[in-house]
Amino acid sequence: MITRKRKKSIPIEKSENHALPPLKSEDSIIAIEDLYATSSSNVCSSSLCTEQRNGEITKKEQQPHDDSEFMKKFKMEYYLIKEYRTANLTAPVDTMGCASLSDKDADEKVQRFQILVSLMLSSQTKDEITAKAIKKLKENNALSVSQMDELSEEEIQNLIYPVGFYKRKATYLKKVCKILKEKYDSDIPNDVKGLQSLPGVGPKMAYLCMSTAWKQVEGIGVDTHVHRISNRLGWVHTDTPEQTRKELESFVPREEWDVINHMLVGFGQTICKPIGPKCLDCVVNKTCQFYQNNKDKKSPKKKVKKEEEIDSSSSQDDQE
């Protein structure tokens, strides 16, 4: 029997602005009203569904993704978040994500390397800091395999500081440059396995790199935002981003695999934050399991030590 640890209550940020973007069709409005009339407690939300026994929450194997109620809930929440994000491209990832940091005038090999470097630097780092580090590398002519390979680890450290784990990442970048020169003609691997074989590159980075650098969608890139939001909404009940990826890929339409990361990362940066989520402004709060479970709870009187928010497309489960 696998037990789940009881999570701490997270204060929900209050807001005066509850305006939501308009829906696109009358059918959507009717479908949402029908969905809201259905108790979310009756919806099985993952192939690892939860079951309460003697006060303990346990997991049991199910096949819920054939459940029309679960898929109806998922599709409607996904649609509403997607519509909101389309109308509100104001998140850091919209202007400073890995797809926007490469030099579009550079050689294709160089562009792919720059995308890989952006992803490696983004782990445990805010997008704003990653963007500044990439800019500094460009200004110092250090953003191609040959250029970076000529630098010492200390020089790379100075250029990428203050990204998270900058010393470790400098070591990884130096090793990656050597591997790319020797094995890939200064290009990056063109498959997930090859990318994950590089020092400092985990599953999330590999899948995002494939879709962004090679325009090949091999899987869903799951970072802390995608992992958190998917669990809060009850789409999955998982412990790691990699478990979340496998669960999501079992029911998210393949044509959405390339969209879902950018969509949820931006939503996590602006609305569904790790600390102080803006639940009252959220377009899916009426069906969100996290909000329904926490809306009546009072914020703790004692000041809670605020965890550092990582507003980037990073994952703690990426290998560093």
TrEMBL record:
Keywords: 4Fe-4S, DNA damage, DNA repair, Glycosidase, Hydrolase, Iron, Iron-sulfur, Lyase, Metal-binding, Mitochondrion, Nucleus
Location(s), subcellular: Nucleus; Mitochondrion
SMART domains membership: ENDO3c
Reaction catalysis annotation: 2'-deoxyribonucleotide-(2'-deoxyribose 5'-phosphate)-2'-deoxyribonucleotide-DNA = a 3'-end 2'-deoxyribonucleotide-(2,3-dehydro-2,3-deoxyribose 5'-phosphate)-DNA + a 5'-end 5'-phospho-2'-deoxyribonucleoside-DNA + H(+)
Chain residue ranges for the region called Disordered: 294-320
EC code: 3.2.2.-, 4.2.99.18
Keyword Nucleotidyltransferase attached: no
Domain HhH-GPD: 121-270
Alphabetical GO biological process terms: base-excision repair, AP site formation; nucleotide-excision repair
Pfam families given in the database record: HHH, HhH-GPD
Single GO cellular component term: nucleus
One Gene Ontology MF term: 4 iron, 4 sulfur cluster binding
Function (record text): Bifunctional DNA N-glycosylase with associated apurinic/apyrimidinic (AP) lyase function that catalyzes the first step in base excision repair (BER), the primary repair pathway for the repair of oxidative DNA damage. The DNA N-glycosylase activity releases the damaged DNA base from DNA by cleaving the N-glycosidic bond, leaving an AP site. The AP lyase activity cleaves the phosphodiester bond 3' to the AP site by a beta-elimination. Primarily recognizes and repairs oxidative base damage of pyrimidines.
HAMAP family, per database record: Endonuclease_III_Nth (MF_03183)
Family according to the record: Belongs to the Nth/MutY family.
Family annotation (PANTHER family): ENDONUCLEASE III-LIKE PROTEIN 1
Name this polypeptide is given: Endonuclease III homolog
Species in which this protein is naturally found: Naegleria fowleri
Organismal lineage: Eukaryota, Discoba, Heterolobosea, Tetramitia, Eutetramitia
